[in-house]
Amino acid sequence: MAEDCTDPPDPEAPSERALATRSAPxxxxxxxxxxxxxxxxxxxxxxxxxxxxxASARLELIRRQILALQEEARAVLDEAARAAELHRARxxxxxxxxxxxxxxxxxxxxxxFSMLSPEEWGGEPPHAYExxxxxxxxxxxxxxxxxxxASR
Length: 152
Prior knowledge:
Helix content is 38%, strand content 17%. By secondary structure, it is of the alpha+beta class. Strands 2-1-3-4-5 form a five-stranded antiparallel sheet. A hairpin with a 5-residue loop joins strand 3 (128-135) and strand 4. The longest helix is centred in the middle third of the chain and has 51 residues, at 37-87. The mean pLDDT is 83.
């Protein structure tokens, strides 16, 4: 008896057919534009081309950033090697950050720092003058030109 008892359909509820037409991937009316398998394939091909182009552009940007970072890393390593080499120059005094020191070469491998500039030697330093450097707070050296301008 329970099988004979069915509820009458709700007149305001949408029918199954009406729900199916709202979400159908193909036209449900003769007046709707016709979707052809070729059109769908062309749309997929355009989407694939666009996605590929966007991905390629982003990867190219990443490649350029990597190259820039590699160049910057080389510059940092070169600067660190130069600072380490200058710290190995002989020095008979305590170097303090902010001061300018003058590098001279005696012989082939003997480099040393002096507090005296070539001008303070009367224009004739006792050994070959190689440049003036200011010691920075981070223990790096900045080359100081003859006119007092600094350059890394």
